[in-house]
Write a structure and sequence with these properties.
Distance between the termini: 10 Å
Largest sheet: none
Length: 510
């Protein structure tokens, strides 16, 4: 299967995965909020966000392993592949041991940072069981890295879908009687166990072997290169973690658990929007850009970047329009009255996130070229700016202050910083990049966006059927605008080929 077909298949399957996740959220979240209450659900959000910080112990290795294993595999350097596999497996084993230790320590210290005595036992159980299970996944991460390095993302997607289904089904069983976050963590752990088991058995198929005895250790120079690459990527991951999780911590610490629930509900659709764009242009593009760079050099990879950005810019902007317009009425129908604060969260964050996601492929591209150090630094500075701004504004404006600080940081980064980095990497003038990737998509979709807004204001949707109808009509209007004005004739033909229509050409991993 050609590389383009692999990417197309992975993107389509990823979308199906997120359709499943969206359906799960649609059904499970109201049940959770109803059973746990706004306070209990807010506590669950805060505790799972704390567990998520363990992912920082990855230290940037996930994408690093994908890049180096992918390059070695693409160049058919079997001896190097074996050495890399052994190296990353050993690193993950050490990280896993540290992660489990940190989780146990966090559970033991739970009473020190949970003020409410009634919640201390829940926090201890959730952080202990959940943290140990999440930390234990590091021991198996080498297998998901192997799968990704071979651009076999459908295997990752199947495992993810299995986790979601197991968790969703068990939620209704574990909360059928007594409702508590302690019981809920059991369903969460079962989903993780299923996913990791599937990844282990699938990843074993790609463990590299070689007829030539591989070196016991990588060369010192290559080890230093790997550490440098991982370190730069770690800064970006840490910045993303601060941006995505710190708002919840600030809202929970400065306000209350109910405010956390309102923030979580408002940002839920935004995060699903981010997940969809990651499904389309995420890790599999890092592996693909790495393979193209190894084969065609920086010029070939830069050419692929510009073509990819043409698609991502229009699709991300279209998604942002739909979420901005239909998000609030969806929340009202989904959870009922009492979530008006969530409307504000969604409509302030949607435009800023859309601008960022329009340029989503820039991250995987820079990562494949080992040029993501600057962007990682910028992301970290932006995350600190967001944190400081949130801490200041929450005291004056409450939860809206946290939202506005996040939106300001995202907007500045999307309109100024990312274009500069991307234009330099693609070797085109900044003005040309800004015009092609940001201004033109905005102009192309403006008439359709105004039509979508007018339809929602004139015929406000209040039922699921009406929401679906609006979504279909809005999607058609925006897709027609993208197809007719956003893509050139050659790009339309390319889309048809990726989807399996039109004239097929013989491709050698192209």
């Amino acid at each position: 299967m050609s590389l383009k077909r692999k990417l197309g298949t992975a993107s389509v399957l990823n979308l199906l995965d997120y359709v499943l996740k969206f359906g799960t959220v649609l059904v499970v979240s109201p049940y959770l909020i109803g059973r746990l209450g706004k306070d209990g659900y807010g506590v669950w959000v805060v505790l799972t966000a704390l567990i998520g910080y363990l992912d920082l112990l990855d230290l940037g290795l996930s994408n690093t392993a994908v890049r180096y294993l992918g390059r070695a595999s693409a160049a058919d350097r079997q001896g190097e592949s074996v050495s890399l596999y052994r190296h990353f497996k050993a690193l993950y084993a050490r990280i896993g041991a540290v992660a489990v230790g940190v989780a146990l320590l966090g559970a033991a210290l739970a009473p020190w940072f949970v003020d409410d005595p009634a919640l201390q036992q829940d926090a201890r159980w959730v952080l202990g069981f959940g943290g140990v299970a999440f930390g234990g996944t590091f021991f198996l991460r080498i297998y998901s890295a192997l799968i990704k390095s071979h651009v076999q993302y459908h295997r990752i997607i199947i495992a993810s879908m299995a986790r979601v289904m197991v968790y969703s089904v068990l939620v209704f069983f574990v909360l059928a009687g007594e409702a508590s976050v302690t019981r809920l963590i059991m369903a969460w752990l079962a989903g993780i166990a299923v996913e990791q088991t599937l990844l282990f058995f699938q990843g074993r198929k790609f463990v590299p072997t070689s007829e030539v005895e591989a070196a016991s250790d990588l060369a010192l120079e290559q080890r230093r290169e790997i550490r440098g690459f991982a370190g730069k990527h770690f800064l970006a991951v840490m910045a993303a973690a601060l941006r995505e999780r710190i708002d919840v911590q600030v809202v929970g610490g400065a306000l209350n658990a109910v405010a956390v629930t309102h923030y979580a509900v408002g940002s839920r659709l935004i995060m699903m929007f981010v997940d969809v764009m990651n499904a389309l242009f995420g890790g599999h593009f890092l592996a693909a850009f790495s393979r193209v760079h190894a084969r065609d050099g920086e010029g070939g990879a830069a050419g692929r970047l510009l073509g990819t950005l043409r698609f991502s810019a229009h699709l991300a902007l279209a998604g942002g329009v739909v979420i901005f317009v239909l998000g609030p009425p969806f929340i009202d129908r989904w959870l009922g009255p009492g979530f008006e604060d969530s409307h504000f969260v969604l409509r302030i964050l949607a435009p800023s996130y859309a601008l960022m996601l329009m340029q989503y492929p820039v991250g995987p591209f820079l990562g494949s070229l080992n040029r993501h150090g600057v962007i990682a630094t910028v992301s970290l500075v932006g995350a600190v700016f967001n944190l400081v701004g949130s801490l200041i504004l929450v005291r004056f404006a409450g939860m809206p202050g946290v939202v506005m600080a996040t939106a300001a940081e995202l907007g500045i980064t999307a309109l100024l910083i990312w274009p500069v980095l991307a234009a330099r990497a693609a070797m085109i003038p900044l003005g040309s990049y800004w015009t092609q990737i940001i201004v033109r998509p905005l102009l192309h979709l403006l008439p359709a966006a105004l039509a979508v807004w007018w339809l929602a204001r004139t015929y406000p949707p209040t039922t699921y059927v009406e929401l679906v109808g609006h979504g279909v009509v809005d999607g058609i209007l925006l897709m027609i605008a993208i197809w007719c004005t956003g893509f050139s004739r050659l790009e339309r033909a390319e889309v048809m080929r990726v989807l399996g229509f039109g004239n097929r050409v013989v491709a050698n991993d192209a």
